[in-house]
Structure formats: structure tokens, C-alpha cells
Amino acid sequence: MLGAAAGGGFPQWNCGCKNCVRARSGDPAARPRTQASVAVSGDGARWLIVGASPDLRQQILANDVLAPPAGTRDSPIVGVVLVSADVDGIAGLLVLREQHRFRLFAPGAILKVLSENGIFASLDAALVDRVEIAPGVATDTGLGVMLTLLSMPGKVPLYQETERSAARADEAATYAARLESGGKICIVAPACADLTDAVVGQLADADVLFFDGTLFYDKEMIDAGLGWKTGRRMGHVSVSGADGALARLAGLQARKIFFHINNSNEMLLDDSAARREVEAAGFEVGYDGMRMRA
Ligand SMILES: [Zn+2]
């Protein structure tokens, strides 16, 4: 787990909510977290980054398995998988522009966002191979991992929103990455607006599931005076509630870890009732530097 927080991070630079105040004070029960990203490896040597967070440079420096072998200018990072075109899902690509060869896996819609934004031309096409992945189709990355992008209910990135697109659930531009190696399956799903039976079915065979933990309850941002949008309006199902992740994912066999957690979410605090509820239900709250083997 490179980063467990949602966009803005924890604490968020311009937020003085009670969670952020505790994180900023060095409170050990309110550990800071960087913006959502996960690194996955099939062989322990070659690593794929899922989600290119704006904090990627700091995240690479914080994880020794991603360090260059001594005496080389190289990196164990051989691939990047993009699952959303939100700023917090692509901005980290700009960190990876130092003449390093890697493969960039994304659906056509996200590759189009990159090609239409000139700044991403800083990733030299001769070195960074853009590989278009058709959603729902298992693809051999050639890097020891099979990759399938699963379409998730969601919404277009905020900067692409219009009145019309925001209201259209079918115009989803959000995906989960299903990575398979050695018979083990890891699914990384930072954004999911609705846990329909079909979506839960897509997650059923995961051994490890990293799932959208943005908000604990749907009106959290409004009640805390931090915004006017509900979780669903932002493209995220809540952790709690009858339609929430704790209820809908309870039956999955996977090790279930929340990440992409907004700084307003009380489950970030080790001593909160929300944290106790999550753990009692058999889920975990992700933190930066968390490591696991499927
Ligand atoms: Zn805050």
C-alpha cells in the first residue's frame, strides 16, 4: 500500500477538520496517509503501480522494494496501471518522466485524456509504451501478472464534469484493476459508486481486495461542513449503511482492506467507533507502507 488516502491526502493541506488537526499534531492514533496507490508484484522483483498518485515520488522513496539496484540508474517499476483519469489517479505519471522505460496500461478513454493533455508528452513515447486495455478482457502484461480492468459504477473526473455527464451513471470512466499471478487474485478498486449484485460478483474471487473507503457515511462531507456533495454524487459508495461496503461485501472470502479514504472519514482514527465497527466486521483500514502476500 503506497497510499491509503483519497484525493487531498491526510491531512489535506487546506483542511482544519478535527481529523486533519489530529493528524497534523503528530497524534499516533491519526497517522498521516498519502493519496491512493498500490504496488503489486507477481515475482517480488518486477512491480506494477496501480494508480499514479500525485504523491508517487514520496511513495517510491518510502518503499525500499521500489528502490533502484545500487550502482544502476534503473527501477523495479516496470508498469503502471491507470484506473481513473482523476487528478489523483494520473498526476503521478509526471514523476516518472526521467528516461525510464515502462509500460502504461489503461483503457482507451484514459489514454485519450493523456494524449489530449500536452504535459503528458513528457513521458517519451519511445520509452513509455501505452497499452490500451479493453475492459473485461484478461490481458497478459508480459510482466508476470495478468490484468483485467473491471468497469465500476462511477462518474467522469471532476474537471470533465458537465451538468449532463454528472447525472449519467452509464458514462462511467472508473475501473478496478484485477491482477492475477500464481493463481492468486488481487483487486484494486479505489472508486465504486454502487455495489450492485453484478459488481459484488466481479469481486467474488479476489484473495485480496483493496476497496473504496472514501466516506464512512453518505452525507459525511455535508454534515462536517466540508462540502455540499453526498458520497454517491462524488462517485463513492459509503462504508456504512444498508447499501454500504461493510454490508454488501461481508460475504466475500477476500482479505478486505479499505483505501482511498477521505480525511473526513472517522475510521482513519485508531480510537474511533467507526474503526471498531470496520474491524468487528472483518475489514481492515489501510495505511501507507502496509504489506501483504496473497
Ligand atoms: Zn480534513
Question: What's the quick description here?
Answer:
The chain has nine helices and twelve strands. It is an alpha/beta fold and 294 residues long.
Key attributes of the depicted protein:
about 290 residues, alpha/beta, 7-stranded mixed sheet, 5-stranded mixed sheet, 9 helices, binds zinc ion
Query: What hetero molecules are bound to the protein chains?
Result: zinc ion
Structural class: alpha/beta
Q: Characterize the main sheet.
A: 7 strands, mixed
The average pLDDT value, as a whole number, equals 93
Q: In percent, how much strand structure appears in the residues?
A: 15-25%
Number of helices: 9
In terms of quaternary structure, the protein is single chain
**Overall strand count:** 12
Order of helices and strands: HEEHEHEHEEEHEEHEHHEHE
What is the share of helical residues?
Answer: 10-25%
Low-confidence stretches: 167-172
Structure, described:
A seven-stranded mixed sheet has the order 6-7-8-9-10-11-12. The chain has a five-stranded mixed sheet with strand order 1-2-3-4-5. The chain has helices at residues 18-24, 56-62, 87-90, 108-116, 163-167, 197-203, 220-223, 245-248, 273-280; strands spanning 38-40, 47-50, 77-81, 102-106, 128-132, 139-140, 146-152, 174-181, 184-189, 208-212, 255-259, 283-285. It is built from nine helices and twelve strands. Mean pLDDT is 93; it is low at 167-172. With 294 residues, the protein is of the alpha/beta class. The longest helix has 9 residues, at 108-116. The chain binds zinc ion. Residues 12, 15, 17, 19-20, 263-264 line the site of zinc ion (ZN).
